[in-house]
Design goal:
The complex is a heterodimer of chains A (about 180) and B (about 150). Chain A has about 180 residues and is α/β, with parallel strands linked by helices. Chain A is built from seven helices and five strands; from the N terminus they run ααβαβααβαβαβ. Chain A has two domains: about 40 residues, no CATH class; about 140 residues, HUPs (Rossmann fold). Chain B has one domain: Rossmann fold (3-Layer(aba) Sandwich), CATH 3.40.50.620. In chain B, helix 1 links the parallel strand 1 and strand 2. Classes of the chains: A alpha/beta (about 180), B alpha/beta (about 150).
Amino acid sequence: MGYSSSLIQRKFKDIVGRRYEAVLKDYSEFLLTDEEMLVPEVRSILMPLDIFVHDITDEAIEVLSAYNATISLAYITDAGVIELLEQALNHASTEEFRAKKEEEGRELLERTAAKLKEHGFSTQTRMFVGHKGDDVVRIAKNHDMVALCRRYADGESTDVSVSPIVLRICQRVETPALIY
Amino acid sequence: MKILVLIDGSKWSHKAALHAIELAKRKNAEVVLFSVLDIAEARALAFNFCAQSGICDQVKDYEGRIWGDMRKSTQQELTAILSRYTGEKVRCSSKIMEGRIRDEVLREANSGEYGLVVMGAFGRSGKTRISALLEQIGGAVRPPLLVVR
């Protein structure tokens, strides 16, 4: 007997046992199917980076080392900011800003990839201008886990909290999320 | 490594336990299943039930009964999860605390004993919204936090 059905049998005894399928359908938001109770293999981990992420903690590396996974590092520059600059300034200033952000991104990607390689991880890197929430949710569909720094897509001032974008990503992705 | 698993009665927290056990096997880690009983929850349940049923004079009695049921049910839940993993060769234990959930979780998680905290993405309200506990503790838990779904 599967986990969900045995749970329903135990809690609701014979009454619901006869109506198992109907209960599972009506209360699906509270129950996990037997398929959902399986722990999926983690082969690839998406790790978004931005200007607010300075490092990966050793504790996070220790946890990630449990998986024999490739880590995809993605540096994202906020498309909204680029658009605002295009409107407020001229194209040349926007390009200058963009080039500077890309340089910072390249540096962070290289530093982070080097640190992960030291710990035996294989890595991939990419950099693009996009939406720090929506694009992570979209790309996460091709990965088995997302690893998010608490400060990702946040600011320097809210150091006692987790970034609202990180919470939104956790709400929307279909994979486990590691917040470090 | 020691892994703290937050169990709140939801099936998502049971899945969190499953993830933690799998991780513990790979890292030769120890798993602690952790639940918090909050008397405020029993008080709210008793008050609302008695107010709606027109039996306000019995509210104290109901609160005591609900509180007793909550303790028993939490103990049974943790025992059931532990017995489910007895054959897994993973060191696994349980701990129940009484107090405010956020405070007790943070006290335990930040005690310095744990290398990872694992919790479900959703709570007992189902998967319509993300666990309120995640919003409360996400920024204050020092070890990495694995959110399972």
